[in-house]
Write a structure and sequence with these properties.
Blueprint lengths: L7 H19 L4 E5 L17 E5 L6 H11 L4 E6 H4 L5 H6 L3 E3 L6 H13 L3 E4 L19 H9 L3 E7 L10 H11 L2 E6 L5 H4 L10 H23 L19
Parallel strand pairs: 1-7, 2-5, 2-6, 3-4, 3-5
Antiparallel strand pairs: 6-7
Amino acid sequence: MSGWKRPGRSGAVLYALLAAIVGALTSAVCSVQIERKRPTNQLGHRGLPPGGLIVVANHTSLADGVLLALAGQRLGRPLRMLGTAGIIEAPILKHLFRRLGFIPVQRRTAQAAESLAAAAQAIAAGEAIALYPEGRITRDPKFWPERSKTGAVRLALQTGAPIVAVASAGAHRVVGRRRKLWWLLVNLVRRPTVQMRVSEPIDVRTLIGLAPGEVATNEQVKRAADAVMGQLVAMVEGLRGEQAPDPLGVPRTDQPGNS
């Protein structure tokens, strides 16, 4: 994979145009509610903070990528999404996604680390990148977040960028695990609500008590990943009004859940 390239003005116009079109189409099948921070908090009315930023979110549905990108637009930042190469490098969509600054991830390959290098380039250029720390759609039958991988935290430690967690609840009702087209057709009438909640920026070095110049151990990196996921799980609990089965994310399993 070649290095990340900034989309430029034409890419920004294309992103805004597509966001408007896709946003209108999305509003036909669901309602998205975003809980914003109060003006007295760090985020203020601007939504997401400026500068290099890492946005992490829980992953319950194929609809998540679209919903998260639209949320980023509402919060004032176009998000450069990290996503599976099977979608971002699909023949018809590859050039479009590259123009939008999206970053393909070669999952379970030796090239997977290249996506983090490209993300670091985007962050250095002052962009907001977005990824799912679970690395896949949750397999939990009740759609609770799974345990986090460490990529987002390692990227934060490498770049110094803060992490903002975006919790969501209800995306699995927009596009289900099975009969996806049927769900979309039904949702033209049902229009389920997707709720989102945005955290304050998280400084990973402060989170785990690293001194200036200190290099994190693998144990500290894992502890930081668990802590960030813990905040994300707590926000999902708040949106759903339920207690999660595990405060750090359910253990990963390869068994598919029910729709």
